[in-house]
Each structure stands twice: as C-alpha cells, then as structure tokens.
Amino acid sequence: MAGHLAVEQLSLTYSAPGQADTHAFGPVSFSVAPGEFVSIVGPSGCGKSSLLECVSGLIQPTNGEVKLDGQIVSDHVPPEVGMVFQQDASFPWLTVSDNIAFGLRYGRDTISAERIRLRVEEALVQVGLTEFAHHYPSQLSGGMRQRVSMARTLVMRPQLLLLDEPFAALDPQTRLLMGEELLQLWRQSGASVLLITHSLEEAVMLSDRVLVMSARPGLLRHELVTGWPRDRHTEITTHPDFSVHINALWAVLRDEAIAAMRMQA
Ligand code: ADP
Ligand code: MG
Q: Could you give the CA distance from residue 210 to residue 204 in angstroms, rounded to a whole number?
C-alpha cells in the first residue's frame, strides 16, 4: 500500500538578509503508515505550518529528509500528495465544477474531457456539492467553500493528504460535520492523512495517532495512540477514552502553550 511518509531529522531555520534567523522547528522525526490518520497539535507559532510545507516539498528544510514511499521529496510537491489549507483556496472566477476540474485539466497527465467530467462528478458527490456544481465560490458558505477545496484535492486521488487547519475558520457545528466527512473520505480513499490542528478535540476525534509539538522551535514532545477502530464517527467523542486522551494531551500541551505565550509577550 502506498502513502508511507518518513520524516527524518527534519528542521527549518528561516533566514533573510538583515534579519535575525528564526529557528521554526526541529529536528523532528516521525512517520505515517499507509492509510494511517495522524494529527499534529502544538501551540500557535511553534512551526506546524512550516513543518507541513517542508513535508510537502513546498519549501526546502534546512536539514533532514522527507521520504514518500521511499522516494526523497525535494524541491516540488509530488503528484501523490494533496494539500488543503486553512484559507479557502478556490478560484473565485471559476464555478465549483471548474474549480474541481482545474488540477485534472492543467496537471501533468493528459486526461480526456469525458474522464475529467466523471471524476469531477464523483468528487461532487463525495463532498455533497452536486447541486452547486455551477455556482461560484462567492455564492457558497464557508463550509461549502472548504468542501470545494477538499474536492479539488481529492479529485487528484492523493495517497497522502496534508491538511493545515482546514476547518479552523468554520463554526463548531460545521467543523464537526466536516470532520465526519473527512473520516468518511479517508476511509473510502485509503489515503494517509497528516492533519495540523490546534484543536485537541478534533485531533483526538479524527486520528489514529496524535503528535504534540513543543513551543518554537517545535520539537515532538509526546505521542498518543487513540486505539479507535477504522470505522469510526464523530460519536467517538462519547467514548470513555475520549476525555482521558484529551486530558493526557492537555497535560503536555499546557506547559508548551504557556511557554509560547511568554515568547510572544
Ligand atoms: P504555526 O503554524 O505553528 O503557527 P508557523 O510555521 O506558521 O507556525 O511559524 C513558525 C515560526 O516561523 C513563527 O515564528 C513565524 O513567525 C516564522 N515564520 C513563518 N513563516 C516564515 C517566513 N516565510 N519567513 C520567516 N519566518 C517565518
Ligand atoms: Mg499555522
């Protein structure tokens, strides 16, 4: 099975002429098994987004290595990787279906118009937007726009999904529903997921494993295995272990959040 991510001794320091260097994170090492759902939580500014950008190949790490199915990820995002960010990334001038088709039309593979149409239709069903295929993003709610972003990524059939706080801008109910949808899409696709979130509830609800990062420069402080079955739903929040897991994560994160707050003060 594909989608195996190995991150080895990865670190990043931002440097710009005339400015002090910023050691964003690392060195960190971890892996994501094929089909596994892993979340990373950590205080704001600890280097989570920077880490995900290095993992994706969008930016070059200062040290260390990222391997996807044994291949080193270097200066570009591999076609097997799909990303969804916190900000809505849809093109406002394209309809929902043209947004979803974009990567297939202008990607490196030549795909027939008919196959693109079928794949877009399938993605629309997956995210429940069939009725809105011809709407423009400005005519949709925030949650729906985020589903467009998700569909744009899923239509490329990624083996590894990298998600950077994709639901952070949504209200709590929509967030919960999107979590439910994400679990379903994860199960159907068989893809591995690496999710960045600042919500402990979201991390525990969705993941097989949660990694906790320290205040900047972010290091991995703790690993929690939830033990949830693959066929799980948001009702898992009522499981007796749910609050036990949240408390265990908070016990580690609390000190890091305080350290991060002091740094910003
Ligand atoms: P998080 O996602 O955990 O909030 P980030 O990865 O966005 O953290 O940022 C980690 C640190 O790196 C912060 O101190 C931030 O100011 C700094 N940083 C982020 N992007 C850049 C950049 N392009 N150039 C310089 N510093 C950056
Ligand atoms: Mg971030």
A: 7
Q: Distance between CA 30 and CA 218 in Å, rounded?
A: 13
Domains of the chain: 5-80+160-264 (3.40.50.300), 88-157 (no CATH)
**149 within 8 A of 84, measured Cβ to Cβ:** yes
Q: Which residues pair with 163 in a beta bridge?
A: 84, 195
What pLDDT score does 24 carry? 96
232 alpha carbon – ligand 1 mean position (Å): 34
Q: Which residues line ligand 1 (CB under 6 A)?
A: 14, 22, 24, 42, 44-50, 216
The model scores a pTM over 0.90: yes
Amino acid at 9: Q
CA of 109 from ligand 2 middle (Å) equals 31
- Would you give the end-to-end CA distance of the chain in angstroms? 46
Give 260's contacts (C-beta < 8 A, 6+ positions apart). 43, 44, 45, 46, 215, 216
- Please name every residue paired with 65 in a beta bridge, in sequence order, or none if there are none: 8
CA distance 249 to 170: 23
The pLDDT tens digits for 212-243 are 999 999 999 999 999 999 999 989 999 999 99
What whole-number distance in Å separates Cα of residue 224 and Cα of residue 18? 41
- Interhelix angle for 96-106 vs 142-154, to 10°? 20
Q: Which ligand is nearest to the CA of 218?
A: 1
Would you tell me how many other CB atoms lie within 10 Å of the CB of residue 230?
Answer: 11
Does residue 239 sit in helix, strand or coil? coil
- Cβ neighbours for 167, distance < 8 A, ≥ 6 positions apart: 146, 174, 175, 178, 179, 197, 202
